């Protein structure tokens, strides 16, 4: 079965074709970073309009790269949520319409399930069960994964997601949009010993996250230190390093705790923040030291992309799940509501 995947949940247009026997045949992503950089964040209406312009040409491009005509597609998967409702509507309406015109089934995919399953595209893929850390601009979740669609949320963010905290702290430091990667680059030049930020909610039981206080801590540190700094840019780099260290340490502590509580040995990390180099290095060291294994998608598939939607859609379409013509995109959609495969 060959599945066309369409991702339009936020500000990236992603399209891919996944073949159940041959694997990923082609994929492409168009980023709207330049459009939203002027505003310092994603403008939903502009995101929707750009998806309208870019999605169909990107589908043509991917089909050409895969050497396929429309009659070579056996199913269509589109992101049905969670995300920006206008952006979701573009991909969902186009994907469902193409499936109807081509006479093939369609399925709406949960965006975070796409991220969660992205490491399974790689070789070797982790076996079930495992613990997943889904860490992105909108989510920071620990999930006990018994199988596809068999998810139990172990812990969630009580306020800002890690990626959101990265972006907001980057803005505090005067860094350009998108801020998360810029903060990570600046942190490479920072002194890890100059400042120490708190590791929120690690001194109590539980697997919940809270990162908004770190953002405030960074702001207060900047206001205190910048007026007396001999080298303002180095001070910003030192604050960025302290912030990144605190976020990374917090996630490592929570992941180790989750593996101990579930008894699982495998941990996967997925979502945009999982591409962070320091997070991967620290997590590998900590988990391997306890006899566990870590798995990640390739960096290209950490951020939003069509490949993860095509793969997740293939899993559900081959199990006989599909959408009626009356599809329903959802801005909010709890992961635990998904039916098992």
Beta percentage is: 15-25%
**Approximate helicity band:** 40-55%
The general outline is globular
H/E element string? Answer: EEEHHEHEHEEEHHHHEHEH
Task: Tell me the Rg in angstroms.
Answer: 20 Å
Instruction: Supply the CATH superfamily name of the largest domain.
Output: ATPase, nucleotide binding domain
Give the overall pLDDT as a whole number: 97
* Major sheet strand order: 3-2-1-4-5
- What structural category arises from helix and sheet content? alpha/beta
Number of strands: 10
> What count of domains describes the coordinates?
2
Largest sheet: 5 strands, mixed
Poorly predicted runs are none
Structure description:
This protein is an alpha/beta fold. The chain folds into 2 domains: 2-117 and 301-337, Nucleotidyltransferase, domain 5; 128-296, ATPase, nucleotide binding domain (Nucleotidyltransferase, domain 5, 2-Layer Sandwich). The protein is built from 10 helices and 10 strands. The protein is globular and about 65 Å long. It starts with a strand and ends in a 24-residue tail after the last helix. It is found in: Cytoplasm. Its EC number is 2.3.1.234.
């Amino acid at each position: 079965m060959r599945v066309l995947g369409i991702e339009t949940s936020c500000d990236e247009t992603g399209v891919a074709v996944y073949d159940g026997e041959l694997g990923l045949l082609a994929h492409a992503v168009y980023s709207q970073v330049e459009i939203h950089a002027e505003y310092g964040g994603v403008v939903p209406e502009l995101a929707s309009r750009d998806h309208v312009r870019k999605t169909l040409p990107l589908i043509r491009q991917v089909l050409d790269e895969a050497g396929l005509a429309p009659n070579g597609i056996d199913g269509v998967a589109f992101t049905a949520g969670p995300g920006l409702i206008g952006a979701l509507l573009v991909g969902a309406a186009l994907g469902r319409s193409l499936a109807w015109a081509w006479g093939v089934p369609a399925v709406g995919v949960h965006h975070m399930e796409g991220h969660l399953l992205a490491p399974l595209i790689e070789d070797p893929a982790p076996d079930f069960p495992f613990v997943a850390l889904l860490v992105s601009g909108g989510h920071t979740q620990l999930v006990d994964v018994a199988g596809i669609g068999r998810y139990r949320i172990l812990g969630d963010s009580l306020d800002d997601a890690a990626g959101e905290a990265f972006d907001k702290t980057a803005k505090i430091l005067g860094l350009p949009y998108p801020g998360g990667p810029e903060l990570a680059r600046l942190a490479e030049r920072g002194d890890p010993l100059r400042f120490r930020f708190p590791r929120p909610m690690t001194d109590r039981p539980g697997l919940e996250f809270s990162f908004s206080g770190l953002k405030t801590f960074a702001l207060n540190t900047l206001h205190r230190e910048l007026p007396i700094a001999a080298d303002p840019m180095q001070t910003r780099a030192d604050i960025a390093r302290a912030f990144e260290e605190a976020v990374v340490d917090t996630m490592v502590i929570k992941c180790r705790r989750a593996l101990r509580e579930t008894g699982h040995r495998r941990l996967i990390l997925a979502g945009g923040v999982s591409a962070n180099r320091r997070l991967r290095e620290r997590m590998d060291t900590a988990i391997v030291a306890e006899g566990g294994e870590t798995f990640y998608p390739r960096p290209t598939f950490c951020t939003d992309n069509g490949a993860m939607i095509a793969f997740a859609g293939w899993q559900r379409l081959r199990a006989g799940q599909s959408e009626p013509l009356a599809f329903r995109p959802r801005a909010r959609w709890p992961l635990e509501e998904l039916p098992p495969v």
